[in-house]
Amino acid sequence: MRNKVTVIGAGNVGASTAQRIVEGGLADVVLVDIVEGLPQGKALDLAEAAPVVGHGAHIVGTNDYADTAGSDVIVVTSGLARQPGMSRDDLLARNAGIVRTVVEQSAARSPEAVIVVVTNPLDAMCHVALRASGFPVNRVVGMAGVLDTARFRTFIAMELGVSVTATSALVLGGHGDTMVPLPRRATAGGVPITELMATEQIDRLVTRTRNGGGEIVSLLKSGSAYYAPAAAVYRMVEAILQDRQEILPCAAYLEGQYGIEGLFVGVPVRLGRHGVEQVVEISLADDEKAALNASAGAVRELVHVLDSLS
Ligand code: APR
Questions:
Q1: What is the mean pLDDT of residues 139-155?
Q2: Is the pLDDT of residue 82 over 80?
Q3: Separation of 99 CA from ligand 1 center, angstroms?
Q4: What pLDDT, on a 0 to 100 scale, did the predictor assign at position 84?
Q5: pLDDT tens across 12-43, in order?
Q6: Hey, how many other C-beta atoms are within 10 angstroms of the C-beta on 297?
Q7: In the prediction, which pLDDT does 87 show?
Q8: What's residue 308's pLDDT?
Q9: Averaged pLDDT of the chain
Q10: What is the model's pLDDT at position 275?
């Protein structure tokens, strides 16, 4: 049976994600947007690239959720992108309304799907998607850690002048200024970066990782990052559809793990066909634990704001 992925939002992140999925031969894609013509135009353009690229995946663009029925994965990118000077939190109320609507419409038509949330502020939008879908907690997961970790690895490789493929890293916490990169667990060629760099260098990379999204926003002047976010979504969708049981940092609903209750926070999870198959608990140093708690506190505040709005 062919896999089917619905991508909601035919903007920069959504269209790039759709392109990666069909051109990677991972699944057929239904691209949805509220703007008439936009998803149809982008889907037709991508379909016309198929003979050149040489893949057989189907892609359709639509404004009608009936076309999304029976999807295996729903990727939610619809929303407003961050503008220069606008924090992720400013987007909260506007994007919550959008995410609620699109998840209600799509989840009802694909009751067995795994929802991958991309819209910011990410962790809060995961809560909105969980409530709007009524899905079990394992089938709602947020894309943040894969991207934040990729940014950290990029900066490590740039700083050391080594291949990025030899690096590994882990970033926990909410997807925002309070995220928690873990230098202690970052390596290049298996060597901890704490043995390769001075503390000041590491601190600079950690700060740059935390501001990674903002750095792209300031350079682009309008809109926010999409190539790396789309690559990160692809990686998660691949792990789900191919039941890879891959351990990736994602926003997952915690029910006591890491001492956090009832909150989406970025942690390592085992990702497979059922979504979050397991939250992987790793040991944290006291300062890392404190930073994760502070980050979770920031997410909780946003969820409280959301509650007060509804
Ligand atoms: N239903 C469907 N689509 C919608 C809706 C809605 N109710 N509201 C907005 N959209 C669509 C817009 O029409 C637009 O095409 O969502 C798309 C968003 O695309 P962009 O503005 O290009 O934003 P993008 O860069 O793709 O970012 C999307 O991902 O990384 C996050 O912070 C980012 O929250 C933002 C999201």
A1: 98
A2: no
A3: 10
A4: 67
A5: 999 999 999 999 999 999 999 999 999 999 99
A6: 13
A7: 66
A8: 85
A9: 95
A10: 98
Would you list the DSSP string of 9-61? --SHHHHHHHHHHHHTTS-EEEEE-SSTTHHHHHHHHHHHHHHHHT----EEE
Q: Both tokens of residue 236? A: 């998660």
Is the CB of residue 62 below 6 angstroms from any atom belonging to ligand 1? no
pLDDT at 51: 98
The sign of the dihedral angle between the CA atoms of 126, 2, 112, 6 is positive
Residue with tokens 């992108």: 81
Q: Is 101 in the pocket of ligand 1 (CB under 6 A)?
A: yes
Q: Do residues 203 and 175 touch, judged by C-beta distance below 8 A?
A: no
Query: How many Cβ atoms sit within 10 Å of the Cβ of residue 277?
Result: 18
Backbone angles phi and psi of 8, in degrees to 5: -100, 125
Domain ranges of the chain: 4-142
Fold of 4-142: Rossmann fold (3.40.50)
58 is catalytic: no
| Residue 268 alpha carbon to ligand 1 centre in Å | 26
Ligand 1 centroid distance, CA of 42 (Å): 14
**Whole-angstrom distance, CA of residue 77 vs CA of residue 229:** 10
Q: 79 CB less than 6 Å from ligand 1?
A: yes
Query: How much is the average pLDDT of 170-176?
Result: 93
Query: Is the CB of residue 144 below 6 angstroms from any atom belonging to ligand 1?
Result: no
Pairing of strands 187-188, 191-192: antiparallel
At residue 88, the pLDDT reads 60
Task: Provide the 8-state DSSP code for 184.
Answer: G
Query: By C-alpha distance, which of 105, 116, 74, 70 is closest to 229?
Result: 116
Active-site residue identified among 127, 175, 274, 304? 175
